[in-house]
Amino acid sequence: MEIKELKEFLEQIKFDEKGLVVAVAQDYITNEVLMVAYMSKESLEITLKEKRACYFSRSRQSLWRKGETSGHIQKLKGLYYDCDADAVLMKVEQIGCACHTGAYSCFYNKAYEENVTDQAILKKVYNQIINRKENPVEESYTNYLFEKGLDKILKKVGEETSEVIIGAKNKNKEELVYELSDLIYHSLVLMVSEGVTIDEIKQELAKRHK
């Protein structure tokens, strides 16, 4: 965005009496709402220039670059404002967790949810595995795998691969679906362990799909 366009955009936003506007951060892949905070004109300008979320902390009364201490930054992928120009929506790539509690999203308290298939479930499981690695939970199987290390993870991937083969040979679809799910989960754990992202897998698949 050019300087002139940025100035025109900022003039359209209706900041409140404290000079702030509500800002919603949303995962650009899964569309999951991650958090709600506030932005000032300066933090909004910084966000657009640096392509990284910068908020205004009401408690500290100062600018707050998301992840400046935790490393859990938000890379800006898109920014929009509503019909009244009094709220902004950011599509971001969340690195690590958005919530200070260690949860990926601040909206983890469920009041109601339709029982529908989530098209972005792989991304959600992947993010949950990252969360478990960075914020261990007692008696978590995922944490058990990370504690045991790469050899244990690779052993499980090998075991699940064999069970997928057996399920297919048995012509048992229910068994095959179950074992494929186990294999995919353990493969995601391996990816997190070795720093491989879902985007990197997508990019590799895209190269082959030509």
UniProtKB/TrEMBL annotation:
CDD domains (UniProt xref): NTP-PPase_HisIE_like
Region named Phosphoribosyl-AMP cyclohydrolase: 1-121
UniProtKB keywords: Amino-acid biosynthesis, ATP-binding, Cytoplasm, Histidine biosynthesis, Hydrolase, Multifunctional enzyme, Nucleotide-binding
Record domain Phosphoribosyl-AMP cyclohydrolase: where: 35-108
Regions annotated as coiled coil: none
EC number: 3.5.4.19, 3.6.1.31
Protein name as it appears in the record: Histidine biosynthesis bifunctional protein HisIE
Subcellular location: Cytoplasm
Organism superkingdom: Bacteria
Family: In the N-terminal section; belongs to the PRA-CH family. In the C-terminal section; belongs to the PRA-PH family.
Enzyme class, broadest EC rank: hydrolase
Catalytic activity: 1-(5-phospho-beta-D-ribosyl)-ATP + H2O = 1-(5-phospho-beta-D-ribosyl)-5'-AMP + diphosphate + H(+); 1-(5-phospho-beta-D-ribosyl)-5'-AMP + H2O = 1-(5-phospho-beta-D-ribosyl)-5-[(5-phospho-beta-D-ribosylamino)methylideneamino]imidazole-4-carboxamide
Pathway terms, separated by semicolons: Amino-acid biosynthesis; L-histidine biosynthesis; L-histidine from 5-phospho-alpha-D-ribose 1-diphosphate: step 3/9; Amino-acid biosynthesis; L-histidine biosynthesis; L-histidine from 5-phospho-alpha-D-ribose 1-diphosphate: step 2/9
Start and end residues of each stretch annotated as Phosphoribosyl-ATP pyrophosphohydrolase: 122-210
Principal location: cytoplasm
GO MF term list: phosphoribosyl-AMP cyclohydrolase activity; phosphoribosyl-ATP diphosphatase activity
PANTHER family xref list: HISTIDINE BIOSYNTHESIS BIFUNCTIONAL PROTEIN, HISTIDINE BIOSYNTHESIS BIFUNCTIONAL PROTEIN HISIE
